[in-house]
Amino acid sequence: MVTIYIEGEAYTVKEGQNLLQACLSLGFDLPYFCWHPALGSVGACRQCAVKRFKDEKDLRGELVMACMTPAGDGTRISINDAEAAKFRAGVIEWLMINHPHDCPICDEGGECHLQDMTVMTGHNYRHYRFPKRTHHNQDLGPFLNHEMNRCIQCYRCVRFYHDYAGGSDLNALASHDHVYFGRFENGPLESEFSGNLVEICPTGVFTDKSLKAHFTRKWDLQTAPSVCVHCGLGCNTIPGERYGKLRRVRNRYHHQVNGYFLCDRGRYGYEFVNSTQRIRHPLQRTAGEAIPIPMTEKEVLDLAGTILADPGKVIGIGSPRASLESNFALRTLVGPDRFYAGLSDSDFSCLATGCNILQKGPVPASTLQGVGLADAAFILGEDVTQTAPLMALNLRRMRYRKSARIASGFQLPEWNDAAVREIAQLQKPALFIATPYPTRLDEEALRTFYAAPDDLARLGFAVLSALDPEAFPMPDLKDSLRVLADEIAQALLDAKRPLVITGTACSHPALIEAAANVAWCLGRKARAAAFALCVPECNSLGLSLMGGHDLNSAFQAVREGRVDTVIILENDLYRRADTETVDAMLRNARHVIVIDHQQTATAAKAHVVLPAATFAEATSTLINNEGRAQRGYAVMPAEGQIRAGWRWLRKLMNAAGHIGARSWFRLEDLAADLVKDMPVFQPIVGLDPKVDLPTPGGKIPRQSHRYTGRTAMHADIDVSEPKPPADEDAPLAFTMEGYDGPPPPELISRIWAPGWNSEQALNKFQSEINGPLRGGDTGRRLIEPAASDDGRYFAMTPPAALSGEDEYLLVPIHHIFGSEALSMASPGIAQRAPRPYLALSPENAPAKENERVRLRVNGRSLDLPVKLLPGMPVRMAGLPVGLPGLAKLALPAAVKILGTEKNKKE
Amino acid sequence: MLTEQEEKDIEAVAGHYPLKKAAGIEALKIVQKHRGWVSDETLSHVADVLEMSPTELDAVATFYNFIFRRPVGRHIILVCDSVSCWIMGYDTIVNHLEKRLGIGFGETTVDGRFTLLPNVCLGACDRAPVMMIDEQLYGELDVEKIDKILASFE
Amino acid sequence: MESPLTQNIRPDISPLNLPEYEKAGGYQGLRKALTQLAPDEVTALVLESNLRGRGGAGFSTGRKWSFVPMGDDAPRPKYLVINADEMEPGTFKDRLLMEGDPHQLIEGIIIAAYAVQAGIAYIFLRRAYVTAGQRLETAIKEAYAKGYLGQNILGSGFNLDLYLHVSAGRYICGEETALLNALEGKRAVPRAKPPFPPVVGLWGKPTAFNNVETICNVSHIIRLGPAWFRDLSHVPDGGSKIYGASGKVRRPGAWELPMGVTIREILEEHAGGMQDGLEVRAILPGGVSTDLLTAKHLDVRMDFNSMQEAGSRLGTGTMVVIDDRTCIVGLLSNLMHFFAQESCGWCTPCREGLAWTSRILKAIEQGQGKLEDIEHLKRHTRLITLGHTFCALAPGAMEPLQSALTYFEDDFRRHILERRCPWR
After folding, report:
1. In what helix (H) or strand (E) does residue A110 lie, and over which residues does it extend?
2. Whether the predicted model's global pTM rises above the 0.90 cut
């Protein structure tokens, strides 16, 4: 700790900061633009000027930029100094020279950092009387608007997009007062993190295009703390609603998880909540009727009473995208023995393997933040950019951190962004990527290795052997593999925080075991190793921990006539198993009840469909890939007959005379039963913040104190303003009234502070810049390393051989846009998703790019255009996962190319 | 498409740098020597050879005064517009050039012979007013001299 | 009076080739440095000579070199970069040295590289100096052929590769750290200091950085000694200086004179005084980024300290002479237009402030000024100073403006009140 003096008063601050960080952490209001907590300082905008004095006797002092000045012991500054204040106002005046009078029509208005800083400096009179410079705008794709006239040239956009996120198609062009931030030509921004520009840009240059389609001011949004549902990382979000529609999703800072950023899938994938494909009423489909008919609630309950009368013949299929509560409710209804996990075969075994590793092994699951702190990382099999995008963003920090360590040798602090990057140019971090095909993160890797999943696993075992030859001798290892394995092993051993990353992407449990071996060996050698398991969906881990039989057994049970009724919770089985099998089950079961919010292929064949609430309409708990239980709060009340899945199941249970749900009036009642039944979930009781708020009712409002229109909003239905709907599941209210002081961290519904209307107000919520939120990190980890360690390793399974000369091994290729179902309902995401293709190596592809081929795999024929993928191993082919129009296949599998457009063999 | 020679020259100069993309400016100068200016298409091809994105290369190209991203004439006239030449009669020189050629700054004569551009101090202040045409410096200019000089270019 | 820098330069400025240069005593300094002196001894000699940087900043050259980390642990490769991007308006001295005696520069480079143990050197040449570029390329080839460049120079074990890099054209490239970025193939935006280039420079490695004229002195200092060099000068700063004059003087040109001659001597003895019918009204002593001096200052010495005391700077030492029939407001408008256009666009005060002052001055010059404009101009000179901006370009732009407002505010008022330029 060091002492600095501000206006003559002494303050103790953490060592190593710059003055801007220190002042903000202490709660002072100092304006800034180009500095950003994640991007560090460059000193370009000159907005944060303060007066610094040599000592007590120095009365004149000199202006310095707070962001570029170390807060060293004994530093004396004045923020209120007249010259400094005049200079800061002058900077705003300069920025306003060219800034258009757009506020009333600018999307940023009301949450604009430029507005806030202008007010903060006191500048208010325009002396400049000459014309303003103007620019043409570009079409940057479905996610971002471009309005360059508003630009204040803070350079944050390119520093985030190019420097931090590794994007190459946005840059600063031209110079002097014509500087332009854009692309070489019109076209969608290529980076998967482009959407963060809406929060990075301090004015309205880059704004959310999806919001523009249904624009609402920030102060008019109803918001709540939520969790992203589009992958297994569980990034924290703040979605915003108005008039019953979700309008947008913004980042919610979590020190251990997502930090300041979201990926584009998480930011723009929310339109499924508003989709016309929503199921909004209970529906019944009788035999012979093509169109289902709506049911009243009474009809539903009556039907339930009949169908569920014989519990022994009812099974339930849970979902990795449904909440813990809804899955538990289904399990309670059907009983643990008749509860099935709605996962593909490979996901089922991969997740079971993964959970086993996390629970039994000596190495902890890495937090997402921890990924960014690793100084050596070995990725085995997973294309993280597509399956766990924020993890890829954090891995890109490895190069910066390595350079920062070198820079500290020159007494340069980590926040001196330009200096660290100067050193970083020629550094490659100790990142090793072994995947079936080239990935976008490869450009950051020291070494890459492309091979079939079995051979990737073999590499994993080779690394274990290099780490501990006695524990795992591999005498027949090929030389080239041994050399690579030795290099990886050495880098991991030399590191202070080695990290092993794997996941379900290759659909190969042996690969996960091989990765675990490496992590465990490092842990057993007293290294601070961590293990990151990438899982596909927002509650994959939750469902796996809950148990449940594999889906095949469910299919078998129906096939063998042991089952009458199948209840399917928020799941499209056609994404889990092949078409014929699912067809058969849905055809043979007497009653199929689907509880879901989207019209899926499964729901289209159900006899009864019940409208489930989405994450936006029901408070729920999800378990992310590190085993962190997090609670996402409803943003808006569920409309009409839409209910949380567990609430429908409770109604069904009550109607059927099942006593299990009797006491479940509120979410916490269900949670109490859940933890009693399955102790692994015990920590979730800690998710309820202990709030002791002074206002009667003790609730935190979801609406800002400037929320408008509530008395007129429902006037078309009833002139009298209705009572705000009650929320039994959360200490939050669907209203403006309530406690308006600082909420506990898990209940932060909006990032706002007096004078700080934009997301930059976050600095008021953090205990220190870049630190946890005041009150601590939210969520609770369920799994920590086992106390005892038996020292064993997973055994190596012999590799499968390809059968024929002309066969390829077909592996799944994941896409951030396209492989995940819910986000595809957003038009922008669907636009960015690829059409189905077959990826082949250019070295031996039998057809040219875009020419079609016919192939045979899993006993079925497919017809697809070819995409040449340089780097793809020659005996392999790739098929994109989850795209519309592609049926589910069990991959990896052998595939034979039957013929091309040109010469058909068959 | 780049010619084989251009690609060879670019690869050669890229070998002098620890990072290929650092040769961006040099590469643009090479193609501009052959083509007079750098079109969007040319820029994309150069970017490909240097394993960088066209946007990254354009960020560098648009910063520098002598990378021309629009077509130019066969000869580039650079008129020094800095202080010493301004004192010594820049206005007269420019008026005459504009009249004689029928174009203003940033424009090219209809016959494609000359492009007229201003330039910061050419470093020959003792011979002001000064202009350069292509690689040749002309000092102590007056109206007659200018006419003679222009006539010598095709 | 000795003129070591220009003694070999012929009246038609045709360059000496290598044999001619050696015959005139060239590469003797190099031989002495590499065979008789250790690297830090070379630096010590240069420090003792009181050689100050000739690019405009005037920092002690020997001291600058001493900041480069030496010893086996120092990061490698180390670089030496020569700033031959002479673009300061009114300046034309480095052109003379490079066109007239390229080997003098090369010899100085090799000695300087030896002193800091740099293995790679670059000459960063402005694009307009085509002739200098051709002559330097020829001289470099000759030097390699003779073994003065390359491996194991003169059997000393010292290796040096020298490259000529021609800029793509921008004034800011003359700024030390922006030049490094240009060499790295980037936009020439300056870097913040610390870190300083001797420690973290080109590609993050230790880099020594000097102006052409500065380096041209080095071989002479080594050959003839620091005392000799100090004695060339009228003032404590050592050496001779290339001074110049342009504007409406009888004989514009450049001359090598002892450091510290007066303005009057340059103007009247060497430049021949003003043209017929004209009086000197103001002087930009060292390029356009220096404060104006007036006819009252003619007896001030042109050295770093004397200039500073008089309220200006030596800068590049080539003066622009402003006669009494040239409009000061027009002059400032020309200057500010230059600065605003050459701004790299990184920091707010330069990017926006220079454009604003440029527009104000154009308006005043065209008779469309307002009295409040003068206050805005003055405010800019107060707000835009060193430390307030990211680099020295904008503060440099304020120097002529603030001095014009100090000495010639009336000119501005007349334009505004008479709504026209009284000088036309």
Report:
1. none
2. yes
